[in-house]
Amino acid sequence: MQHFDSDYMEGAHPLILERLAEINMNKMPGYGTDDICKSAADKIRKACACPEAEVFFMVGGTQTNATVIGSALRSFEGVIAAKTGHIAVHEAGAIEHGGHKVITLDHSEGKLEAEAVKNYMEGFFGDDTHPHMVQPAMVYISHPTEYGTLYTKAELEALREICGRYNLMLYLDGARMGYGLGAESTDVDLKVIAENCDIFYIGGTKVGALFGEAVVIKKPNTIPHFFTLTKQFGAMPAKGWLLGTQFDVLFTDGLYLSLGKHAVGLAMKLKNAFIEKGYKIFIDSPTNQQFVVLENEKMEELSKKVSFGFWEKYDENHTVVRFATSWATKEEDIDSLIEML
Amino acid sequence: MQHFDSDYMEGAHPLILERLAEINMNKMPGYGTDDICKSAADKIRKACACPEAEVFFMVGGTQTNATVIGSALRSFEGVIAAKTGHIAVHEAGAIEHGGHKVITLDHSEGKLEAEAVKNYMEGFFGDDTHPHMVQPAMVYISHPTEYGTLYTKAELEALREICGRYNLMLYLDGARMGYGLGAESTDVDLKVIAENCDIFYIGGTKVGALFGEAVVIKKPNTIPHFFTLTKQFGAMPAKGWLLGTQFDVLFTDGLYLSLGKHAVGLAMKLKNAFIEKGYKIFIDSPTNQQFVVLENEKMEELSKKVSFGFWEKYDENHTVVRFATSWATKEEDIDSLIEML
Amino acid sequence: MQHFDSDYMEGAHPLILERLAEINMNKMPGYGTDDICKSAADKIRKACACPEAEVFFMVGGTQTNATVIGSALRSFEGVIAAKTGHIAVHEAGAIEHGGHKVITLDHSEGKLEAEAVKNYMEGFFGDDTHPHMVQPAMVYISHPTEYGTLYTKAELEALREICGRYNLMLYLDGARMGYGLGAESTDVDLKVIAENCDIFYIGGTKVGALFGEAVVIKKPNTIPHFFTLTKQFGAMPAKGWLLGTQFDVLFTDGLYLSLGKHAVGLAMKLKNAFIEKGYKIFIDSPTNQQFVVLENEKMEELSKKVSFGFWEKYDENHTVVRFATSWATKEEDIDSLIEML
Amino acid sequence: MQHFDSDYMEGAHPLILERLAEINMNKMPGYGTDDICKSAADKIRKACACPEAEVFFMVGGTQTNATVIGSALRSFEGVIAAKTGHIAVHEAGAIEHGGHKVITLDHSEGKLEAEAVKNYMEGFFGDDTHPHMVQPAMVYISHPTEYGTLYTKAELEALREICGRYNLMLYLDGARMGYGLGAESTDVDLKVIAENCDIFYIGGTKVGALFGEAVVIKKPNTIPHFFTLTKQFGAMPAKGWLLGTQFDVLFTDGLYLSLGKHAVGLAMKLKNAFIEKGYKIFIDSPTNQQFVVLENEKMEELSKKVSFGFWEKYDENHTVVRFATSWATKEEDIDSLIEML
Prior knowledge:
homotetramer, alpha/beta, Aspartate Aminotransferase, domain 1, Aspartate Aminotransferase, domain 2, seven-stranded mixed β-sheet, four-stranded antiparallel β-sheet, 14 helices, 13 strands
C-alpha cells in the first residue's frame, strides 16, 4: 500500500534525528534560551535577510496561528482571510476562541487577491456604520495555499501595498513553505517573503522536522511581551532546544530548500504523468499537493492499492482527490503509482 | 425637519413614563427580583403561551445577543446566521469576543432559509474533517430582518424542523419584533414564535420603551446559571424593575401590538405613496422600514427637508435609502413627507 | 417597613424624570452623538478640570468595569485589586471572562495601600520567572470602597506615584462616588480624582439617576477605538441621550454633590445615634454605608420593622449589618429608625 | 559544571529515541488516530485500572492545563487552586485567558487541603450574594506539588469526598507525576489517583520523554467534543504518534515508574547528605526536588561549580535554593555534588 494522504505522515529527516540523539544527554536551559535556538534563529535571520527579526519556535500550525494572531490583534480588531483559509475553516474556531473575527473574502484558487482586500477596505471605510464593526487589522495568507497554489512576487507586493495603505499587518502562514520555496518557477524566496510580510512562519512539521514552526517577526517588538504571550497561549515548550535543533539542521547547507525541491520534483513527475494519461487536473498546483479529477470507478480501483485524500465531489461520476508528496517520498513510490494510473 | 432615520430616536410611550414616575420613590429590591418584573414576566409568558418559560430583562440588543449566544454555546460551538445578520456585521465582533464563530450563510432579502441551513449541515457532516471545525449549535435569525422582511409561519417551521434534525437551538432576535407582529398579513404571532424558537427576545428599545429587551427561554434551564451569566456579561441591571415596569406596561391591554400596528400602518401609507408616485421599491418590506430607490438629485433635494438612512448605492444615478417609522411617528409627519415626494 | 438595604432601591431624582419627560418626543440621534451628551460631557470635564478628557456613558457598574478594564489591557496584562474589590468578588468573573487576571492584594478596610502595590511590584520584578507571569498593568480601586471607606488625597497621590513608577494605569470605580465627594471631612474632590487617576467613572445608578455611569478617560486615546470597544462589550446604548440627559441634570447647579451630601448627612446622624446608644461600629465609614455590630436578638427584633443588609457573622451572638442611606432617604425615616434602636 | 536547575534539561530516555528512529519512515495517520497511540492509551488505562478512560496526548503542561480546564468549565465556572499552584502563578494567565477565574486558597507546603476547600464552599453557599460570584466547579491540585510534596491516599480521598459533596471535578496536574509515584513511602499509585480524580495528566516532558503529557479522563464524555476542543486550543499535534510512541515506551516494562524511582533515590541520597552535614532542609520533600537553606556565602561558592534554582530569600544571610534530580541524573553527579557541600 502506497500512501499519499498528506505530507505529515513521517518523522524527521535523518540528520535531525542524528543531531537530537547526539545532544540528548546535554543539559540545556529551558524556554528557548539556549545556544542552539540562538544559532537556528541566526541562520533563519540570515536566510531571510532580516538581521533584526525576532524568531520564536512553536510546535504546530494551529497553535502558531492562534498565538500570533491572538497576540498581535487588539480586542476590537479582526483578521482578513480567504474563505478557504486554514484559520477560517480547519482550526476549530481557534481565532474566535481568542476573541477575534476572521473576516472572509472570496479567493482565487486559494489565494487572497490584493484587489479583494482593497475592495473590502474601501467598502468598510465607505460605510458610515463602520465604527460598529470589527476593525480589520491584519491580512492572513498561506503560501502555498490550501490548494497548493503560490503567490507571485508581484502579488505579494500588491498585498503589501494595500496593507500599507490601510495599516494592516501582513501575516503569512508557511506550514508548507518549503514546498513553495522549492517550486520550479517561483520568484518568491524567503527574502521576498520577509520583504513583504510583517510576520510569517516557516513550517517544519510538514517539511522534514519531527514537529515545529519558526515564527519570524520582522520588526522587533511588533508584538510586545510576545514571550509571555506564547506562555499564555500554551505555545512555549519547556525544551525549546528540541525545536531550535531541528531548525538549526534544516537551515544548514540548504537542507530546508532541498527537501522542498525533492517533494516538488516528484509531484511534477506525477502531475505530468496524470496529464499524459489524459486525466483532468483540477487545479494547476506547482507544489507538492496535486489535485486531480478521477472517475469514481478508477478512484475505487486505485484506493485498493494507494491511499490519497478525498477533496470534493466533482460531478455524479467524478471526484477530486489530492495526492501529496513530501520530503520523504521516494521516486520508486511515484513510479509505481504512475504505473497504476 | 422631519426625521425618519431610525426607530429609536424617541423616548418611551407616555404610559411608560407615567408609570415610572408613579413608582419612582418606591423602594424596590434589586436585580429583577421584584414583583413588577414577576408581573411583566407572567404577562409575557401568557402572550407567548409558554407557562414555563424563563424571562430575563436586558438593556440593549447587542448586549442581549452577546449574553444569550455566549451563554448558550460551549467553547467549541458556533452560531449560524445570515451574512447580513446583525451579529455578523454590526456588533463589533461581540460574539467572537465571547469566543464563538458566526458561521455566515447566504440570505434571501435578509432571511435565512431552512434549505441553506440544511445544505450547510449536510456538507458539514459529509466532510470527514468536520471534527476539526467549529461545531454549529445554534441558528440566529431576526424577525423582522435587517431588511424589514418577515418569516412566514411555514418558514419558521421549516427552520425548526432542520434545527431539530441537527440538534441546533433556534434563536430569534426580535429587536423590532413589534413591527413584525403588527404587520398586516403576517401569520406569525408571539405564540408561533414561541412554538418554533428555543430562545428569543422581544424588543422594547425600538418599540415604545425607553430601553429594554425581554429574553424568553422557552424551556427552563436551557442555559444553566443564566442569572450568574447575565452578571458576568454585564447585562444584569441593578434596578431590574426599570425594565420590568416598561414591559409590564407594554404587555397590558395589547399596547405592544398596537404600537407595532401604528408604525406599520404609517409605513404602508408611505410605501403606497412611493408606489403611486412611480418610485422603485427596493425590497418589499411589510414592516416599519421601507427601502426605496431614489434618483440622486431627488435624494439631495429631499435631504434638505427630511432625514433618512443611506442604505447602499443602487447605480450611478440612484441610491437605496431607508425610511423608518416608529411607534412615535405621527400621521401628519407621513402626510407632509408624502407631499414632498 | 423601612428599607435601608441598599442605595439603588429608588428611581431617579425628580428633576431627571422631569427632564426626560420634557424631551421624550424629541428626535435624537443615536449612540451618544447628540447634543445633550455633549453638554453633559462638557459639564463633567469642567467639574473634573480635565478639558481634554473623553467622557463615555454606560449603563451599569459591572458593565463599565468589564468594558474599561477589558479594553485597556492587552492579553498578557492583569489588574491589581484589593481582595474585597467588586471586580474580585461580585462581578461573576466578568474580568476573567474578558481574559484578564485580577491580582488580589490584602486591603485595609477595603482600601488598597500604595505600600501593598509597591511590595507586589518589587517582588514581581525581583522574581526571575516573572516573564512567565501575568504582567500587572492597572490598579483598580473604588472610592468609596466596598466598606464605605475613603481614600485621602495623600493616599491617592501615593498610589499615583507607585503607578507612575511601574507604568500602571490607575482606575477608580466610582459607583458610589457621590457619597464620597459628599463626605464631611474628605479632601478628595473630582479634581483630585482626575489629577491622580487615568480613568475613573462617576456613578449615577446609586446617586440620583435611574441608571448610568460616566466614564472619564483623562488623556484622549488612552484606549484606542473605545467607541467600537463599547459596542463589542454590549455597553453602547442606542439611546445614549437617556444617559447624557441624566448626567446633564446631575451636573447642573451642583445636584450630584448635594445628593451625596444629603445621604451622608443622614448616615452620620444614624451613626451618631448608634454610637450614643452604645452600639459597636464595625468600620468607621464616613459615607452612606454604615456597618454596625448588632446582638442577634436585637437584629431579629429590628428586622421585623426595618430591612438592612447582612454583612458577616461577628461572633456567636453578634452580626455585622449594613444600613445604607441614599439621595432619596428622608430624615423622618432615619428618625424613626433611631427610635427603634 | 554540574546542573541541578530543573528536571527538563535533557532529551529523552534512550529507548524512546531508539523507538522513534525505528519508526521514523513509517507512514502514520495523523491526529492521534494511529495504532501506537491506541497501544499507549491501552497501557495507560491498564496502569490506571480505568478500562473506560479516554486518553489524549498533548505537548506541554501549560497547554494541557489550559485545554483541560478551559474545556471542562462553562463560562460562569471557576477552578479552585492553591495560591502556589502552577496555574495560579506561572502560566501567564492562561486560565484567565480562557475566561475562567482561578480561585486561590491557602496551602500547606504546596498542598490544598480538603478542609480549605470545604470552608470555602461552605462560605460560598452561606453567602446570599453567591449567584453574583464565579461558581466553583473544579479543584486543581498537582502531585507532586510545586514544593515537591505529595498527597497521601487519605488526603486525596478527603478531597474526593468534598468534591463529590459540592459537585466539583477533581483535576490533578501530574507534570512530575513519575517522581511522586517513585517516592519511597508514598501510598499513592496510579490507581489511587484514578480512583479519586476525574481528570489527571501523566507528565512525560520532565520524566523521560522528549516532550508530552498524557491526559486521562476517567469517565468518557466528561468533556464533550474534547477532540475538537484540543484543536481549538492548539493542543492537537498533527503527528500524534510522536507522543503516543513515547508513552508507549514509558508504559512498557514499568519504565515510567523506574525512571521516577531513579531520580528520587538520588534526591534522597542528596537530602541525607545535606542533613548529615547540618544544612537546614526548607521543606521535607520526598521527591526529586530538594529545597535547602544555604548561607549566602556558601551559595555563592557552590554556584561557581554547580547550577541550581533560586527559590526565595530566607533571611539576610540565607537563601532557599532548589536542587532537582531527574531520570537522567547520574549517581556520580550526586556524589561529586555531595563532596562540595
